[in-house]
Amino acid sequence: MNHDTNIPDEGEVILIDKPLTWTSFDVANKLKRACKFKKIGHAGTLDPLATGLLILCTGKKTKQIDTYQAQEKEYTGTFVLGKTTPSVDLETEFDAGYPTEHITQEVLENARLKLTGPIEQVPPIYSAVRVDGERLYKKARRGEVAEIKKRNVEVSLFEIDTTHFPSIDFRIICSKGTYIRSMVRDFGELVGSGAYLSVLCRTRIGAFELKNAWNLTDFIHQKRVALQLEVDE
Predict the structure, then answer these.
(1) Which residues are responsible for catalysis (predicted)?
(2) What percent of the chain has pLDDT over 90?
(3) Residues 6+ positions from 138 with CB-CB distance below 8 Å
(4) 100 belongs to a structural domain
(5) What is the pLDDT of residues 172-189, one digit of tens each?
(6) Are 175 and 44 in contact (CB under 8 A)?
(7) What pLDDT, in 10s, does the model give residues 65-75?
(8) Same domain, yes or no, for 59 and 174?
(9) Which among 17, 47, 89, 186 is annotated as catalytic?
(10) If we measure between CA atoms, which residue out of 87, 99, 46, 37 comes closest to residue 213?
C-alpha cells in the first residue's frame, strides 16, 4: 500500500495508525471533514485504548468493507495478572485483586494452549455487541446485566513472553470477531487469578500491515496539500 493521497472519485483504501484514545468513528469522522470525503467507513473497530491498523474505505470502495472485516487479524500487546477491571482494560477502575504467587510456567502454558485453536468466547460486557437492539457497553454503564451469547472464533497463534511477570507480552493471530479482552479475561480465570489488558496494538489485517499505515495528522496534511495543488492548477 503506497502513501498516495490523490484519491480518485471512485474511492480508495486508506491505512491509518489509530491514535490512542480515539474511537474508530472519531478517525473516520475527522477524515471525512478534513479531507472532504463524501462517503467513508472503517473495516473493523478498535477500542479507544488500542492503537494500530485501521482500514478506511471511501466512495465506492466502501463496498469492500465487509471483505476486509472478514480477514485475519494480528495483535501485539501486554496484559497484567493479579487485578481486574469491569472493561478488562484501563477504561474503567480496578475492581478486584487476585494472587499470582501460585502461577507457574506450566500453568501459564496450559492456559495459552486452551486459548489457541477453535475456541468459544463471550464478548466483554463493555463492547459494541448488540443485545436487544442496544450496545452492551451502554447497558454496562447503567449497571445492567445482559445475557451474552458465546461465539466461535479461531486463534491460529497465541505467543506469550513472561519475562516481566505478572505483566505478559503477547502476539495473537485470530479470526474476525475475536475479542482480545475476552482472551485476557479468560486467561486470568484459567490461571486462577484475574487479568486486565494494559496495551493493545493491531499490527495486521489480512495482507495490510501497520508499517504501511499513515499517521493521521500526516495523511490529512498531505491530502490538503494535494487538494490545494488541484485548485491551483
Answers:
(1) 47 (nucleophile)
(2) 79
(3) none
(4) yes
(5) 999 999 999 999 999 999
(6) no
(7) 999 999 999 99
(8) no
(9) 47
(10) 46
Interhelix angle 180-190/105-114, nearest 10 degrees: 140
Residues 23 and 138 both lie in one domain: no
Give yes or no for a contact between 218 and 25, defined as CB atoms under 8 angstroms apart: no
The answer, yes or no, to whether residue 49 has pLDDT greater than 50, is: yes
Q: Strands of 19-148 (E only): list them.
A: 40-42, 51-58, 73-81, 83-84, 96-97, 117-121, 130-131, 134-135
- The total number of structural domains in the chain stands at 2
Tell which residue, 160, 155, 199, has the closest CA to residue 52: 199
Q: In one letter, which amino acid is 193?
A: S
Domain containing 80 — which CATH number? 3.30.2350.10
Band (pLDDT 50/70/90 cuts) for residue 138 is confident
Give the separation between CA 163 and CA 180, rounded to whole angstroms: 20
